[in-house]
Every structure is written in C-alpha cells, then in structure tokens.
Amino acid sequence: MKAIGTTRPRPITDSSALIAFDAPEPTLRPRDLLVQVKAVGLNPADAKVRASRQPEDGKPSILGYDAAGVVVGVGSEVSLFKVGDEVFYAGQIDRPGSNAERQAVDERIVGLKPKSLTFAEAAALPLTAITAWELLFDRMKAGRDEDETLLVVGGAGGVGSALIQIARATTNLRVVATASRPETRQWSLDLGAHAVIDHSGPIDEALAAAGERAPKYIASLTQTPKHFSALARAIAVQGVIGAIDDATGVAVTELQYKAAGFVWEVMFVRPVHQTPDMIAQHNLLTEVSRLVDAGAIRTTLTRNLGPLTPQSLQEGHRLMESGATIGKVALDGI
Hints:
Elements: E1 2-6, E2 19-22, E3 32-42, H1 44-50, E4 61-62, E5 67-74, E6 86-89, E7 102-106, E8 110-112, H2 119-123, H3 126-139, E9 149-153, H4 158-170, E10 174-179, H5 182-191, E11 195-198, H6 203-209, E12 217-220, H7 224-234, E13 240-243, E14 261-264, H8 269-273, H9 280-293, E15 301-307, H10 310-322, E16 328-332
Parallel strand pairs: 9-10, 9-12, 10-11, 12-13, 13-14, 15-16
Antiparallel strand pairs: 1-2, 1-4, 3-5, 3-7, 3-16, 5-6, 6-8
Helix pairs in contact: 1-10, 3-4, 3-9, 6-7
C-alpha cells in the first residue's frame, strides 16, 4: 500500500524529510480495525516526532495520528464496529501511523465519525478532543456542575479550541481563554469563551485587570515554563494546573502554599500502556461525535491542504512548526 514517512530525523526544509514508499499491509491484532484512511489531521506532535524519530531498522516509519476513514476489516475479537462503519480516531504513538492508505487501530480508541462532518472535518478533532477531555475530567478532575473558572492558556490552538467547546457544552464552568492577536481572540470568543485575556504579559495581571476571579482550573497548553510563575500566582487555593507541553524547569514548589496541584496530560498513555480503562477513549469520542451532530461542538478545521502527498504533508508540518496556526489543518487521503 502507499504510505508517507521518514527514515531519519530531518528538518522540514529538507526535501527528503517526508518520502512516499510502498508499505506492507497492516497486520491485525484481535481487537484491531483495518481502516481505509480518507483524511488525516495534523498536530504539533506530528512535526515533533518527524524531527526526532530514528527508525531502528533504517526502513521508513509511517507517521500520523489523527484520521477519519471507513472500516474495511476487523480482528477476531472486535465487538464495537463492523465493516462499512465510518470512524475517527487519534491512533497511538508506538504503531504505524495514519499517513497511509490503510491503518490498523485498536477499536477501544476509535469512535464513530460524526455524521454531519466530512472526513477532513472529522479528522481535525480526535487528538485534540481526547487531550482536552482527559485533561479536564481525568487529570484536573473538574466537576460538571461547579461554579468555578477554567483558564485556557492558548485558546486558539488545536487543544484550546476543543477544550473551550467541551467545557461550554458539558460543564457550568466559566471559561476564560488567552490570546494575543485580534484574530485568535475572536476565534476563542466564537468558540464560546466567556472572556479572553492577553497572554503576552503576566497572565495573573491580565486576569486581575479583567476582574476575573482566581481560576480553580488552569489548562496550560503552550509555553508552560514561560507562564508558570504567573499561573502559580493566579491559581485558586487548592486549584490545579494541567499541562500538555514541555514543562522542563518549572518550579512546582511555587504551588506549595496554596496546596495546589500540577498534573500532566498525555493522550497516548492509555493505548501505549494498554490500561484497563483504555476504552475510555472510545467512550469520549462517542460522546464528542454525539455533541457534534447535536450542534454543541463544531469542527476546528481551518485549512485543508488537499490530497496527502509528501509535498502537501511537508507544508502541513511547516505550518505546525510555525506555531501560528489557528484551529486545525487536515489533508484528504492518499
């Protein structure tokens, strides 16, 4: 089958950073689906893995996580899906990725694609929706009926765009997002943020200037080391900060005298470690799909780069590395 991948770490400016090649057909495990990939979504993780992955055998490694497609085969123990189902998912980091004609993926991390979305629109959602949902409910353990504030640092990014919507659709939290440009501010408001503050300066000062109360929950989605001291000053007593990015060097002791917590969200943990609650990702994607079809959540796709080729995928990785994208980027299948 046709696939796109990498043979060693290369900068995206290298014309060989991503190459097309013929890959063997996926081998199904008992609970695997074989999916004909119709569209893929891009995330910063795609670019980070490309820039660091060194395949041990020298053979090309298939990259890609977010995908939407059609089930064309099932493993011997599959019970949640059937051939012909349209699905979406984010895959896992330790198996061949979605930048191929077909992909094997465990049914426990797959959801039925929202009927109201195209494949590309659906492919823009899984990784960010899973990350946002797990961060809010599983890591920070936010209550759905709490009269508290959630601060979303980086509201216009992929995860921020999903988190704003999920929080508004499923909780009573007051959602305050951060942004530094007029277009990202408006994007966050359009997605449902109650208010938007500027993160180009100290975030605690911006919160105070806006008259916002101390947030019980802070989702630190970007530049955590830069913002951490301000977030520690801003967090409510006994609140919690959740991060998804590289927080190397942060001084968590700054939270000590508020008895505040700091947690990580890594959405690949459940499938990589085959945790007993791995099916939680299937369940939350099922709920996200329902919310989309009910009109409570919308796709965050802002750019479709067309058919998946080494050149179009390279452009997508360049956009991911720019750090200036709003919402999500997707491509149609090979």
